[in-house]
Specification:
Layout lengths: L6 H21 L6 E2 L9 E2 L4 E6 L6 H15 L3 E6 L11 E3 L2 H10 L21
Length: about 130
């Protein structure tokens, strides 16, 4: 069988999605990003120091399994961040796909980028205080 349900068909589909993700990264701040491809172990995309990438375009999301694969690739590479890219059904626009990483890595990424939470105002717009009606 050579259709989309065969092993060869799934590999071709995966290769296409990995290449699309690598091109997107290269055009958006990672000029050396390139598809490494499955079968080698480790990250699907290389050329992004400190970040491992796992690209998935399969029907029937298996987030926990895919996240574990991403973490295994990240740890093996000694990278700081491991990002799972999950293709969004119905679109080939990589910018609309989902990027998933563990919450601890996300918070570390925000801190590294210098983000800090803005102060919370004493009263939010539209918020009633005690005694008002």
């Amino acid at each position: 069988m050579t259709g989309p349900q065969s092993g060869a068909g799934r590999r071709r589909k995966g290769n296409t999605q990995e290449l699309a993700a690598a091109k997107y990264l290269a055009a958006n701040g990672f000029p050396h990003a390139e598809r490494r491809g499955g079968g080698f172990g480790g990250s699907d995309i290389v050329g992004t120091p400190g970040i491992s990438w796992e690209v998935k375009a399969q029907a029937g999301a298996r987030l926990a399994t895919w996240a574990d694969q991403t973490e295994t690739a990240r740890a093996a590479a000694g990278d700081t961040y491991g990002v799972l890219i999950a293709k969004r059904a119905g679109t080939t626009d990589v910018g609309r796909w989902h990027a998933v990483l563990p919450m601890a890595q996300f918070m570390a990424l925000l801190a590294e980028a210098g983000w800090t939470a803005p102060p919370i105002p004493a009263q939010l717009p539209g918020q009633l205080t005690i005694g008002e009606s």
